Amino acid sequence: MRNSTLTFSPHLWAVLACALTTLLTQPLLGRVDLANIVMLFLLTVVVIAVKLGRKPAITASFVSIGLFDFFFVPPRFSFNVNDVEYFITFAVMLAVALVISHLTTGLRQSALEAGQREQQTRALYALAQRLAGALTVAQVVVDVQQFLQETLRHESRVLLPSLQEVLLPLAGTTVHLNAAEALMVHSIFAHPQTVELSSENPPILIVPLVGVTRPRGVMLVSAQALQRPLIEAVASLMATALDRLHFVEVAQQHKMQIVTERLRSSILAALSHDIRTPLTVLYGLADTLALPQHALPDPLRETAGALRDQAIRLNNMVNNLLDMARLHSGLVQLHKEWQPIEEVIGASLKLSGAALQAHTLKVQLADNLPLLEFDAVLLERVFCNLLENAAKYAPPNSDIVLRVAQDERVARISLCNAGAGFPADKFQQVFEPFERGTSEHSGVGMGLAICRAVVEAHGGEIAAHNPESGGACVTFTLPLGTPPVIEPEEGV
Question: Which of 378, 398, 404, 460 has the maximal Cβ count within 10 Å?
Answer without folding.
Answer: 378
